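Inverse folding, one chain.
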């Protein structure tokens, strides 16, 4: 495990359990929690193999699984992953650090059709690991596979830095929106949803081949 993430160092004790209960309550109240899953479902074939990177308590991976995809959820927070497994049977849940991610070591050697990174995951990473994370995610998708990332633009991670890190990771920017329901992007948007693509030449053979 690399240095602690900002999720650990910049939140109060008990934050993980609060986060779990927050989404349990929202789900019980009938809130729409599937926006990210709808977008990913729209850009991949049926029955795709998908990775939810920074899955938290599992809402996105669960919604994708319910749509018929084969889903693996990964998070460094054991408490969140434990809640995901209890609340959402179906996906496979793994505790792992995104900055050193090697899913073959966890028995998942096959590459993914796409990766989703939702819930401000990028802004909660350990400092200076953003490029490492994007490189590890890129290495886990098929050539031409998508890496779809969303985060708030006011949380200390500049979109320009994200673009630099993505390019350094061998990912190509394909589309950008201001919301998960595809509102137009502008430089003043409070949120950024980016569809990146791993070109065929990046990183040689994908993981597991």
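Residues assigned per position:
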């Amino acid at each position: 495990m690399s240095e602690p993430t900002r999720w650990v160092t910049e939140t109060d004790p008990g934050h993980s359990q609060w986060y779990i209960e927050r989404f349990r309550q929202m789900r019980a109240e009938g809130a729409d929690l599937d926006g990210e899953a709808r977008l990913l479902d729209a850009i991949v074939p049926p029955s795709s193999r998908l990775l939810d990177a920074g899955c938290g308590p599992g809402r996105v991976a669960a919604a994708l699984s319910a749509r018929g995809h084969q889903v693996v959820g990964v998070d460094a927070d054991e408490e969140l992953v434990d809640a995901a497994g209890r609340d959402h049977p179906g996906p496979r849940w793994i505790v792992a650090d995104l900055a050193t991610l090697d899913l073959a070591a966890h028995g998942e050697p096959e590459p993914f059709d796409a990766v989703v990174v939702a819930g401000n995951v990028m802004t909660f990473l350990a400092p200076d690991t953003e490029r490492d994370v994007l490189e590890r995610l890129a290495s886990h998708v098929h050539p031409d596979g998508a890496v779809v990332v969303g985060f708030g633009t006011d949380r200390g991670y500049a979109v320009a830095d994200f673009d630099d890190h993505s390019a350094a990771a061998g990912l190509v920017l394909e589309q950008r929106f201001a919301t998960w329901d595809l509102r137009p992007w502008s430089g003043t948007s409070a949120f950024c949803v980016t569809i990146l693509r791993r070109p065929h030449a990046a990183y040689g053979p994908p993981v597991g081949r």
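The two ends are 25 Å apart (CA to CA). Residues 202-209 have pLDDT under 50 and may be disordered.
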